[in-house]
Specification:
Layout (H helix, E strand, L loop, with lengths): L15 H10 L8 H14 L3 E5 L2 H11 L7 E5 L8 H5 L3 E5 L10 H11 L8 E5 L8 H10 L4 E4 L7 E2 L10 E5 L12 E5 L2 H11 L22 H11 L2 H19 L5 E3 L6 E2 L5 E5 L1 H4 L3 H10 L5 E2 L15 E2 L2 H9 E4 L7 H14 L30
Helix pairs in contact: 1-8, 2-8, 5-6, 9-13, 11-13
The structure holds pyridoxal-5'-phosphate.
Pyridoxal-5'-phosphate binds next to helix 3.
Length: 403
């Protein structure tokens, strides 16, 4: 029996246990403590953010972000449609309604032109949304500048969901640091993990102070427990922040490994009939958190689902590209601006095993399973490509060298 090859699994480095041990030795087993403070500071240095608050998940960070920009019951919030549901769920936690925006083909992320047109239509009739949530999908930044410009024009706060894009760049800077607030996730399948956790970043220190306040049950400054607002229990544990500090120190290695996976897959499979890999937009560097490709069933001779099932038979986990949120039963009543691009990427898109801990043998098994799933693939074996990638890839994470 072949060992299973999973989509994306945790990959622990050398230092995490040391930090966790320190938390135990000093009895800081709480949702506050020195690792939480240090993790926030180090995270800011790595991504070039002003201030950060460590929280219990990326979803919690988004919930706080929407609350901080004043989203209320009855509001509308614009949101990328091609994404994981956690991007939009917090909009509904606040009683607001998402309006989804389609992707463009260059980045698979929100189409700036569609956003501009829709805001232009709505401004004269007084139907502007309260905020815009922009996703950076699969480790690739959206085209942030035009989106930020449009948001600024209408005075709309931009919230960046960079849960999948830690370690990526947009014009040399980290996605997540351009909008009013950015969020990241350290779930077990993300590029680095704390088993579960998230981070909220902003240049405005007041916003981050307010985030910490709301994340700790909104306690007023009083010795007795007094509350003038409804808060949440959303802070990250000091033990998990210790894991995060260790993981930050290997972020650039993890990016290198995931980009290498992509390059090997693309070299081996990129010229097969009907196979196209997710493009890398010219404005930045993607982490290739997941390697994604699309399959044209006519040319390849098998569709995305047939390929996925053929891989599953070989104990290889692949997943369809996210089902667009406007197609989710739970959001059936919500509007979507456009939608055909996201629908097409969902119909034809497949995410391959992409962990930074995959071995060359694992990659070889995936490659051979995919090529044998396509009846139209030529019989001669797919050559195993030598990697030409250098050892280092660290546009954002040079700062880490200082640790
Ligand atoms: C993982 C993810 C989230 C949520 O993060 P959690 O830490 O799992 O709550 C939000 N948005 C996107 C795009 C994600 O991939």
């Amino acid at each position: 029996m072949n060992k299973p090859i999973l989509l994306s699994t945790p990959h622990i480095g050398d230092r995490e246990l040391e930090f966790v041990q320190e938390a135990f030795d000093t009895n800081w087993i709480a949702p506050v403590g020195p690792h939480v403070d240090a993790f926030e500071q180090e995270f800011c240095q790595v991504i070039g953010a002003g201030h950060a608050a460590a929280v219990s998940s990326g979803t919690a960070a988004l919930h706080l972000a929407l609350r901080l920009v004043g989203v209320q019951p009855g509001d509308e919030v614009f949101c990328s449609t091609l994404t994981f549901i956690a991007t939009a769920n917090p909009i509904t936690y606040l009683g607001a309604t998402p309006v989804f925006i389609d992707s463009d083909r260059t980045s698979w992320n929100m189409n700036p032109e569609l956003l501009r047109l829709e805001l232009e239509n709505r401004a004269p009739i007084g139907k502007l949304p309260k905020a815009v949530v922009l996703v950076h999908l699969y480790g690739q930044s959206a085209d942030i500048e035009p989106i930020l410009k449009i948001c600024n024009h209408y005075d709309l706060p931009l919230i960046e969901d960079a849960a999948e894009a830690l370690g990526a760049t947009y014009k040399g800077r980290s996605p997540g640091t351009f909008g009013r607030i950015g969020i990241y996730s350290f779930n077990g399948n993300k590029i680095i993990t704390t088993s579960g956790g998230g981070m909220l970043v902003a240049d405005d220190s007041q916003l981050i102070a307010k985030a910490r306040f709301l994340a700790t049950q909104a306690r007023d400054l009083a010795p007795h427990y007094q509350h003038s607002e409804i808060g949440y229990n959303y802070r990250l544990s000091n033990v998990l922040a210790g894991i995060g500090r260790g993981q930050l120190r290997v972020l650039s290695e993890r990016v290198t490994a995931r980009r290498r996976n992509f390059e090997i897959y693309q070299k081996a499979l990129g010229s097969l009939p009907g196979i196209e890999f997710m493009p890398e937009a010219s404005f930045g560097s993607a982490t290739r958190w997941l390697t994604c490709l699309t399959i044209d069933p006519e040319a390849f001779g098998a569709d995305r689902e047939q390929v996925r099932l053929a891989l599953a038979k070989e104990q290889i986990e692949a997943r369809p590209v996210w089902k667009p949120l406007h197609l989710q039963p739970v959001f059936a009543e919500c509007d979507c601006i456009g939608g055909a691009v996201a629908e097409d990427l969902f119909a034809r898109g497949l995410c391959l095993p992409s962990g930074s801990n995959l071995t060359d043998q694992d990659l070889e098994r995936v490659i051979s399973a995919i090529s044998s799933a396509g009846p139209n693939v030529p019989i001669e074996p797919v050559p195993w490509p030598p990697s030409t990638l250098g050892k280092t890839y660290a546009p954002v994470v040079d700062e880490l060298a200082r640790f």
